[in-house]
Design goal:
Length: 449
């Protein structure tokens, strides 16, 4: 197994939260394409909204998100004004007919907003879109800056799901990544959120951080499970200082190698399973009665830009700088630079910077990759039956898949591709075997393990 870790674990592979992945996006797809896609968006049923708030009070050195550090409130207020305008443009382009099933606030730190600002933004969303009675609202939260008043505002505005960044409780690791966060801060945030209506709480953990060890990973899990969040998302740190310059502040010599990263990941997984959590897909864990676990058991688990999800909507509307939307026609990403994003929106134009228009084959490959990522197997004959034509051509002359089979990472029997149980952490390598663009886009992805 150590040889396989060395061979595939060092490979740079997509996380496959979309297919094709973002490096395939092109500036040839712009506002007019998105406008046309939005005009037909209501036909696909209920939609999900993703709102990106790209501001934080301080920079965590491991961060791979699009965010800006600000000590002042003015940039946030100006940005929210622009986002309100974008909401109006999108709603108008869609014929004011979109029905909303899910809302997700990501960042950055969405709770950098003041309580009254969050309330005003939610009011704007409810006026521009038709919220379903059981619509779910999720917010990503930094427990270090979450105030009691903000907790109240979240509850008053229907937030029922919260995702808290924890990463590691080890003070040595925290200092090495510039994120000091006590257990008590996290505990207070959880208690407050639960008291104000949050029925599902997720913790984000990271392995592969500087100075991190198996022992410190296990201790972090032990502390975290005392708070009994419904879900955990466990990610490997992606060190890409060429793209994220602040990561150069991390001491590379203190980073674990591929074997150590794999040991940390498995130690975290074993500790969570021992604590009663069910392993979901590649990197999520949930309590047995959580909807994520139920979806996994039922074969209904999905994967999108937020990771593993129960979100069944085929349409995702991305709002804010760098946000990515997914329509049946394709993917559409807003400008990353806040200034350019604001300039276009203020001119009454959708701020689309690039995107990708899906072909029928793309949609088929996307289904194959999603099932592999969610179920660790895919039944190509069954998908062929559902699609109305034979898609087993994906197995023909598939040299990458054949190599994985030879190495024991996967098996292929009667058109069913299965990731070997002891090699599931390499599922991204198997998914890449069905990626028509992998290796041809010149982009560095995160490590597979």
């Amino acid at each position: 197994m150590s040889d396989l870790v060395a061979k595939y674990g060092e490979a740079r592979l997509p996380r496959y939260t979309s297919y094709p992945t973002a490096p395939a996006f092109s500036a040839a797809v712009g506002p007019d394409d998105y406008m046309q896609g939005l005009a037909n968006a209501a036909e696909s049923g209920s939609v999900s909204l993703y709102l990106h708030v790209p501001f934080c009070r301080s920079m965590c050195w491991y961060c791979g998100c699009h965010t800006t550090i600000t000590r002042q409130d003015a940039p946030v207020l100006e940005y929210l004004d622009v986002m309100n305008q974008e909401i109006e443009i999108v709603s108008f382009a869609a014929g004011n007919s979109l029905r909303v099933k899910n809302v997700h606030f990501g960042g950055g730190t969405p709770t950098i907003m003041k309580p009254e600002e969050f309330t005003a933004l939610m009011r704007k969303l409810r006026s521009a879109f038709q919220f379903e009675a059981d619509a779910s609202v999720a917010v990503e939260i930094d427990p270090r800056t979450l105030s009691p008043l903000m907790i109240e505002a979240l509850g008053e505005n229907g937030v029922d799901r919260a995702s808290l960044g924890v990463q590691s409780f080890d003070p040595v690791v925290q200092r090495a990544i510039n994120r000091i966060q006590t257990f008590e801060q996290t505990e207070a945030a959880v208690a407050g959120l639960r008291a104000h209506g949050a029925s599902s709480i997720n913790f984000d953990l990271i392995y592969g951080l500087p100075h991190q060890t198996v022992a410190s990973c296990v201790e972090t899990v032990r502390l975290a499970t005392e708070l009994r969040p419904e879900r955990f998302a466990v990610f490997g740190y992606a060190h890409v200082p060429a793209f994220k310059k602040h990561q150069r502040l991390i001491e590379e010599a203190a980073l674990p190698n591929a074997r150590q990263r794999n040991e940390q990941a498995e130690a975290i997984a074993q500790e969570l399973v021992s604590a009663g959590y069910v392993r979901i897909g590649l990197d999520h864990f949930a309590l047995p009665n959580d909807q994520l676990s139920i979806a996994s058991r039922s074969g209904l688990l999905r994967r999108n830009f937020q990771g593993y999800t129960t979100d069944e909507c085929d349409t995702l509307i991305g709002l804010g700088a760098s946000a990515i939307g997914r329509l049946p026609s394709g993917y559409y990403q807003n400008h990353v630079a806040i200034g350019r994003y604001a300039e276009m929106v203020s001119s009454g134009v959708l701020p689309t910077a690039k995107g990708y228009l899906l072909t029928d084959e793309d949609k088929l490959r996307a289904r194959v990759i999603e099932r592999l990522m969610c179920d660790f197997e895919v039944d190509l004959p069954k998908l062929s039956e559902d699609a109305g034509y034979d898609i087993r051509f994906l197995l023909e002359r598939n040299e990458r898949l054949q190599e994985l089979v030879t190495d024991g990472v996967a098996t292929v029997v009667d058109g069913r591709v299965t990731v070997s149980k002891d090699a599931r952490f390499m599922v991204r390598a198997v998914a890449a075997a069905f990626d028509a663009y992998f290796g041809s886009l010149g982009r560095t992805h995160s490590k597979a393990a």
